[in-house]
Design a protein that fits this description.
Structural class: alpha+beta
Distance between the termini: 48 Å
Shape: globular
Helix content: 25-40%
CATH class: Alpha Beta
Radius of gyration: 14 Å
CATH topology: Phosphorylase Kinase, domain 1
């Protein structure tokens, strides 16, 4: 029963941020013990919605915000334990699209 509740909770959190940030699903959601992810479209661009489910993942989310796209995917939005990240698709890399900037 606990596993079913965790799945329901994760799906509910995804839906909350899909609505809040006016995102369109762009693939099926997937999850691990520590996070949920949902490929989405944000203002016509590919992105990924990430919901942290553990303390360690929440710390990682704060680090992604602090990095501000330097050497990592850009954070497009952040609230509570949710991040909206840019998503490289196909042969595109974050290095090639200008997300990585030398310190």
């Amino acid at each position: 029963m606990r596993r079913h509740q965790a799945l329901a909770d994760g799906m509910a959190k995804l839906q909350l941020y899909l609505n809040r940030w006016q995102l369109t699903e762009d693939g099926p959601p997937f999850h691990t013990r520590s996070r949920w992810r949902q490929p989405v479209r944000h203002r016509g661009e590919s992105a990924i919605l990430k919901i942290a489910m553990t303390t360690e993942e929440c710390r990682g989310a704060r680090l992604m915000v602090w990095w501000d796209g330097n050497g990592a995917a850009r954070v497009l939005a952040q609230a509570d334990n949710a991040l909206l990240l840019e998503r490289a698709c196909g042969s595109q890399s974050l290095l090639e699209n200008g997300s990585w900037r030398p310190g």
